[in-house]
Design goal:
The structure is a single chain. About 75% of the residues lie in helices and about 0% in strands. By secondary structure, the protein is mostly helical. The protein is elongated, with a radius of gyration of 17 Å.
């Protein structure tokens, strides 16, 4: 992998880690803020999801939008990770995308439940920490001055 591509991949992983930290803070604002509205569960509809998020407030809208952006950025990062030909980077890039998608699914399902099914909220939180760990390890294995391999751990 060319050095510039390596630098771009490293930068994108750092951006993801930073955005995950912001995502965490927004989730805590929602979780610890005023009570979530008591809605009845509803079927999948982008309009209904948007309406439900509007009832929670701007933090929920930003949280959902940032989650979608993180998923797109994770796809781009995975493509770069796969092109790196570094096995550990490929593995943790794949795990990072997978955990972000599962966290996103948990968020959608939590919203569809009318904010009543706490295990979907737990899925978001658990997969957030797994995504953070995966991207942190990917960044570690991208260190420019090290030839660390997963087998060396």
């Amino acid at each position: 992998m060319k050095t510039n591509q390596h630098k771009f991949l490293r930068a994108s992983v750092i951006v993801i880690l930073t955005l995950l930290a912001i995502q965490y803070e927004l989730g805590m604002v929602i979780n610890l803020g005023p009570s979530l509205p008591d809605l009845s569960p509803f079927g999948f509809s982008l309009t209904k999801i948007s309406d439900a998020l509007h009832q929670v407030g701007s933090a929920a809208l930003i949280h959902a939008g940032l989650g979608s952006f993180l998923a797109l950025l994770s796809i781009l990062t995975l493509i770069l990770s796969l092109r790196s030909k570094i096995k550990s980077v490929q593995i943790f890039g794949s795990l990072g995308l997978l955990t972000i998608i599962v966290a996103m699914a948990g968020g959608i399902l939590f919203t569809l439940s009318g904010f009543q099914e706490d295990h979907y909220s737990l899925a978001m939180a658990s997969n957030f920490i797994l995504a953070f760990i995966a991207y942190f390890l990917e960044l570690y294995f991208l260190k420019p001055d090290s030839h660390v391999r997963m087998t060396d751990l």
